[in-house]
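Re-run requested by the PI after the first attempt was lost when the workstation crashed. Everything re-entered from the original request form. Ligand of interest: magnesium ion.
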Amino acid sequence: MSDRNVLIVDDDQLLVELVSSTLAPDDYRVQSAASAAEGEAALSGGFQGVILLDLRLPDRPGMDLLERIVAGYDHVRVIIMTGHATVEAVAEATRRGAYDFLSKDEGMTTRLPVSVHNAFKDLEMSSRVSDLERAVHGQDPFAQVIARSPQMTDLFATLSHVLDSRVTVMLLGESGSGKELLARTIHESGERASRPFVAINCAGIPEHLLESELFGHERGAFTGAISSKKGKFELADKGTIFLDEIGEMPLHLQAKILRVLESRSVEHVGGEKPIQVDVRIISATHRDLRTMVEEGRFREDLYYRLAVFPVMIPRLSDRVGDVPILADHFMRRIAREEGKKVLGFTTAAMEVLENHDYPGNVRELQNIISRAVVLASGSQLTLRELPRPLVDAARLQGAAIREVSPEPGDAADLLSAVFESVFQTPEHLIRAEEVEDALIRRGMKLVNGNVTRLSRLLGLSRATLYRRISQMGGKRTLID
Ligand SMILES: Nc1ncnc2c1ncn2[C@@H]1O[C@H](COP(=O)(O)OP(=O)(O)OP(=O)(O)O)[C@@H](O)[C@H]1O
Ligand SMILES: [Mg+2]
């Protein structure tokens, strides 16, 4: 017997027989349901395969059942069958996630086996892709979180124990340290990966809207509620909800969240019946919740519910080892996005980056690199593209920023280092005269227009120097 299951949901017994006999019994195991309720019973009994669904069922519109199937079951494809296939119905069913559409006419028995065959192919393909994705993630679930400092690798090792569980995780860390990225990664590497990840920023939503955002509302629950709306908890059903900035949650909503955690159900604002939800909760905050608990600003019982598995993400300046690898990662990504050929950093630029304190953590580093890549004119990011205050601070702290403060006599060495980074292929080379021009231009400023002195320093005759200066627009333009 085949393991390809087909479920026909239709109350027309003749049609059920016709379909069963069309789909060769050797290829498929066919069962039927005469109503939406029977169809749902089969699904909750674990049916996986292809469903042939009639739109007119005795108990409920087939379209409703379609919506429930698509939202709740992964290993299922639905082919709609109908006697009256209007364009609108086809469009609506497709929008709601139907795989294909068959009209009940003479051609049906020809098209049916093809459509069912394709639906199984699609199912098999998608389960292979998710196997593959899980295998890839299995190798390194944290691949998208760039880090190599021991603090972060320890953190990944700890987190790897909770990826596949429902354990409530709380991410603690300063702004920009990567809390949201980590929350997504935990979700995407676990068994809920194919289900929704719904993030809500408790600080970004006005207090009077937050409740309905979280729990949904009924029509007419308050002024402006013109239709009922699902809340984030419902939208995250079977997946993960990310409660960002949980420390900003008002006390009365904290009580409601606690109730959701205890009853595993939510109630719409203005509604009465509880709606079951199965969500994994990940929360995050940059605040010190313990102190908030002591001060009575955060409920202690909720704190313990949420902080079952607390994880502290260190500040970037406490894991300087991550700076070069993050800088390199952002440089490559942004250069690709901007279509620029930037390949690396000068040593001095990297020194400045490693020296900085990053109050804005990884986000700040990302912004600095973005700006630098946009400004870059060569193939390397140099001090010129970094924010001035950073370079100055590095200098003040005595970092050996050779690009900025070379010792007299270092010039030839430095120049060859610069040449190495500027002239990377024969095509990068320029005429020797252009190098001399740059030298003269800079020199004229340094000697304040004293041609005799410059001719000595550069080892050029005064006559040559005068000629070159006048070709470059004259003494005045060079000094000003
Ligand atoms: N380890 C990392 N590897 C790659 N990108 C990172 C890393 N950490 C953070 N980022 C990037 O830095 C930015 C800030 O990270 P994220 O939004 O996750 O921080 P956050 O802690 O949630 O900050 P906030 O408290 O300000 O919301 C994002 O663009 C994120 O992709
Ligand atoms: Mg965030």
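Saved to the shared folder this time. The longest strand covers residues 76-82.
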